[in-house]
Amino acid sequence: MTGAPIDAASRPAIERGFRLQWEAAQNAHVLLYPEGMIKLNGSAAEILKRCNGETAIADITTDLERAFTAAGLYEDVVRFVQMAVEKRWLTIRA
Description:
By secondary structure, the protein is α+β, with helices and mostly antiparallel strands. It has helices at 42-49, 57-67, 74-86; strands at residues 11-14, 19-23, 28-33, 36-39, 90-93. It has a single domain, classed as Coenzyme PQQ synthesis protein D (PqqD) (Arc Repressor Mutant, subunit A). Strands 2-3-4 form a 3-stranded antiparallel beta sheet, with helices on one face. Strands 1-5 form a two-stranded antiparallel sheet.
């Protein structure tokens, strides 16, 4: 489901064919797929680690804000998830 608007209740999951892992040679988390690899910055990796198809964006945001002693991350999380859905890194589960 990629056509619906993304909101606080949306539950993103990493698309089939992609795998998130730490890559020591890159000194970063990467998103692996059959044709290659995407090197992620720290923020992207932290969001993707929480995209399991079960956890809603509201809860992902709360967890990130707690883990990093930050506030007001909701819009940033939604923007990243929207971009990742457009790039087909993530899908939204109903």
